[in-house]
Automatic annotation (TrEMBL), chain A:
GO molecular function (one): epoxide hydrolase activity
Active site per the UniProt annotation: 183, 318, 381
Stretches assigned to the Epoxide hydrolase N-terminal domain: 6-115
Protein name: Alpha/beta-hydrolase
UniProtKB/TrEMBL annotation, chain B:
UniProt xrefs under Gene3D superfamilies: alpha/beta hydrolase
Signal peptide range: none
A GO term for molecular function: epoxide hydrolase activity
Protein name: Alpha/beta-hydrolase
Limits of the Epoxide hydrolase N-terminal domain: 10-131
Keyword Iron-sulfur: no
Matching PANTHER family: EPOXIDE HYDROLASE, EPOXIDE HYDROLASE 1-RELATED
UniProt xrefs under InterPro entries: AB_hydrolase_fold, Epox_hydrolase-like, Epoxide_hydro_N, Epoxide_hydrolase
Length: 418, 410
């Protein structure tokens, strides 16, 4: 019987010491005079961040803040098909409202449980006047990420990540729950919806809008007609442009991690500066000019650097998904989840599918659209971190009294008793 | 502003400062390794990347047993004589280019033929080390009546002991310009070339720009993805031939290998072509990271070549101790991709004679019918063994081909 153990992040001094020693020996690459940011992360940015990392950034302060803001635990979860028992780390914060909606938040790469840090107080907030529903929040570290154990055997596809997330919710007594996820969180919560939807997962929300055009008039007759007749909006066209640019210039990390995660893993396990560069590229390119502070970036990187299994383990989800029957990030063929689906679209994500495309992928009952907001306001890939209020507002609107997914988990639907 | 001193040839010996060796050892002492999945065989481990056991063993050797000074001395001997000279490249100023230049032991052979000037161009993750084994065979053949060569083998700008370009845009045209100027500066108005990997692309560009006037013929062991499947519209005759000619078993195996490379082995290529600087931070800072990055290719791209650990470490050290640092070498991928020079278009086919030596474990291979887009193929040979680093793996076979080809076409 797996029991919950309270957890506080407490990185041993030896690891901080090793980091300091490596930073003292850091060797930087050269850079072309006129490179700008076209060749990758600019050298000036990395040098500045390293200088801060050596002198000024205080991990103990950040660690204490994380522990204070986010109640954390670990417990063993048994995984099928020979993957054995994995010790899983998670944040768990309950609302004051007894019948609050249990919500599982699933991060992606290069994210982590800390992506839930800003939405945590907002989601668990309760309204005595019944203005909005409240949630109990569970945010796990995916196996191989953060402070969860890593899988030991090959073949740990997103299907098994889904199993872990689902079993975690059951073990916490949440027989019925909803999910929120982006990046791999999208893939994993979609699988949860497919496999455990109806009986356990009651609704799913994502900030990653994927889909494919409703090309077949026979399978989606109304959508097909709508798609044929409605020209794409300006934000939708901008989404295509962004996606094309990403495919052309920015998906090297993706293909590399799908092909040879171990090979690139040696460099990123051994060089904190290398890891910083690798992840920082995504933090800048995939957000909507989010004003990262240096300490924020370094905290984010530190989760990877100090992770239980080391950063290399986090790449393997790409390899396993690529070599699974899905043959890649996600397979949108093979049927859709039936439970209610919500999507929030943010303009600077690397993929922003048109509404007509998204409608082919599930039972869409809610759509939050932030794509027409001006630049620097819309939000990007890390929605929960960049636009926490907007994302929470969308979730509240999806699950509120009178909303399209009200009461899916309990009669009180996240409100106090009247 | 050109400096006449820098434009003249200066003798060169590899001599890595003690401080660089000390820094390397300090970093190795702090090496942090990743975990690895529990897998039953090295073959399975290799699917995810370089196996942990191999890397740990190599790092241990690098720390304790590998003697760089000894290797350095041997390299200086084997690659002698070496030089550096400044070459002016249009738009990029004067750049120091490092090269091996060894003249033939005989000006004229037993058949009365003069020694042929040959430019050998390496690729990534190669270096001038790749000329080491073929150098004595080319300049001092065993038999008196075998064709001999004057060999010039430079470090590509951004690699080995050559300077790196300081501005963006240094693509195949510039590499071609540098090397043609190098040959001319050595008094070789007419010469031939041999190249694989980037060496193929560069020598093909040279054949386009300087063919007939300076480059008389070119040989490759890697005809690149320019060898594209003939499309009916562009080349109806080739297309028909391609449809009708059945592939041999060998050709089918080669296509399988190509498929493996394009679906499983291109990650590094795409990263280096799009965000080389991002990757550069890791490879500059972590010798272990660089070792794994290069070692994986040395194993996967060769035909069961029995690398010994010191050989690997020497190869990687040339990158680690390179003049511009390992990150600079990645940019050739970016520049050539940006300039749209990756796909080799049919219409710009060079018209000087071309030779192709086929080794079974080369990364890409194509039926003969496909290579008509690449060049004027007059020499074509197949070998039973060998992979991507032909000059290193199959020195004798390669030299044999070069002697045969250039005896006939020149």
């Amino acid at each position: 019987m797996s029991t919950e153990v309270p957890f506080k992040i407490s990185i041993p001094d030896t690891q901080l010491e090793l980091l300091r020693k490596k930073l003292d020996l850091v060797t930087f690459p050269d850079e072309l005079e006129d490179a700008g940011s076209r060749y990758g992360v600019p050298l000036a940015d990395i040098k500045r961040l390293v200088a801060r990392w050596k002198d000024g950034f205080d991990w103990r302060v950040e660690e204490a803040k994380l522990n204070e803001e986010m109640p954390q635990f670990t417990r063993d979860i048994e995984v099928s098909d020979g993957h054995g028992t994995l010790n899983v780390h998670y944040v768990h914060k309950r609302s004051e409202v007894d019948g609050a909606i249990p919500l599982l938040f699933v991060h992606g790469w290069p994210g982590s449980f800390i992506e839930s840090r800003k939405i945590l107080p907002l989601l668990t907030e309760s309204s005595r006047d019944g203005d909005f529903p409240s949630f109990h929040v569970v945010a796990l570290s995916l196996p191989g990420f953060g402070f969860s154990e890593a899988p030991k055997k090959s073949g740990f596809t997103p299907d098994y990540h889904a199993e872990v997330g689902h079993k975690l919710m059951l073990s916490l007594g949440y027989n019925e729950y909803v999910t929120q996820g982006g990046d791999w969180g999208y893939v994993i919560t979609r699988k949860i919806a497919m496999k455990y939807g109806g009986t356990h997962s009651k609704a799913w929300h994502t900030n990653m809008s994927m889909g494919f055009p409703p090309l077949n008039p026979l399978s989606h007759p109304i959508l097909f007609l709508q798609w044929m007749l409605t020209p794409y909006s300006e934000p939708e066209k901008a989404g295509f442009t962004r996606w094309k640019q990403f495919q052309k210039e920015e998906n090297g990390y993706y293909i590399l991690q799908c092909n040879k995660p171990q090979t690139v893993g040696y460099a990123l396990a051994d060089s904190p500066v290398g890891l910083l560069g690798w992840i920082y590229e995504g933090l800048v390119n995939w957000t909507d000019e989010y004003p990262w502070t240096d300490d924020e970036v370094l905290t984010w990187i530190s989760i990877y650097l100090f992770s239980r299994a080391g950063p290399t383990a986090s790449f393997r989800i790409y390899y396993e998904a690529q070599h699974s029957k899905d043959s890649g990030f996600i397979s949108l063929t093979g049927g859709n989840p039936k439970i209610p689906m919500g999507v929030s679209r943010f303009p600077k994500d690397m993929v922003v599918a048109p509404m007509s495309w998204i409608k082919t992928t599930g039972n869409l009952v809610f759509a939050g659209d932030h794509t027409s907001v001006g630049t620097n306001k819309g939000g990007g890939h890390f929605a929960a971190y960049e636009r926490p209020e907007a994302l929470v507002e969308d979730l509240r609107n999806m699950f509120r009294r009178g909303g399209p997914a009200f009461g899916v988990t309990s009669k009180k639907g996240g409100y106090f008793d009247k | 502003m050109t400096d006449s001193d820098s434009l003249s040839e200066r003798p060169f010996q590899i001599s890595i400062p003690d401080s660089s060796i000390e820094l390397l050892q300090k970093k190795l002492a702090l090496a942090t390794f990743p975990d690895e999945l529990e897998l039953e065989s090295d073959e399975k481990r290799r699917m995810y990347g370089a196996p942990l056991g191999d890397i740990k063993r190599l790092v241990e050797r690098w720390k304790t047993g590998f003697d760089w000074r000894k290797a350095e001395k041997k390299l200086n001997e084997d690659l002698s004589p070496m030089f550096v000279r400044g070459i002016e490249v249009e738009g990029f100023g004067v750049m120091d280019v490092h090269y091996v230049h060894r003249k033939s032991e005989r000006e004229v052979d037993a058949k009365g033929r003069k020694a042929v000037p040959l430019l050998f161009v390496h690729g990534w993750p190669g270096s001038v080390i790749e000329v080491r084994k073929i150098l004595p065979l080319l300049t001092n053949p065993e038999k008196e009546d075998e064709l001999s060569f004057h060999v010039v083998a430079p470090s590509l700008p951004g690699f080995g002991f050559s300077e790196a370009p300081r501005k963006k845009g240094f693509n195949l045209t510039q590499y071609a310009e540098v090397f043609n100027k190098l040959m001319l500066s050595l008094g070789y108005n007419e010469y031939v070339t041999q190249g694989g990997d980037w060496g193929f692309y560069i020598t093909r560009r040279m054949a386009q720009l300087y063919g007939h006037k300076h480059v008389k013929a070119w040989h490759t062991n890697y005809p690149g993805p320019g060898a594209i499947e003939p499309a009916f519209g562009a080349q109806p005759l080739h297309y028909l031939r391609h449809m009708v000619t059945p592939y041999t078993t060998r050709e089918k195996t080669a296509l399988e290998r190509s498929k493996w490379f394009t679906t499983q082995g291109m990650g590094y290529n795409i990263q280096q072509s799009t965000q080389p600087q991002t990757l550069g931070y890791s490879l500059s800072d972590s010798p272990v990271g660089l070792l794994a990055w290069v070692y994986e290719k040395l194993v996967n791209w060769t035909d069961g070549y029995k690398w010994n650990d010191d050989e690997v470490l020497e190869w990687v050290s040339v990158y680690w101790f390179s003049r511009p640092g390992p990150a600079a070498s990645l940019r050739i991928y970016y520049e050539v991709t940006q300039a749209n020079q990756r796909v080799v278009p049919f219409r710009e086919k060079p018209t000087i004679p071309m030779g192709w030596s086929r080794f079974p474990m080369e990364l890409r291979s194509f039926p003969r019918t496909w290579t008509q887009n690449v060049g004027d193929l007059v020499f074509d040979s197949e070998h039973p063994s060998g992979g991507h680093f032909a000059a290193h793996e199959e020195a004798e076979r390669l030299v044999d081909d070069l002697q045969k080809m250039f005896s006939t076409v020149l």
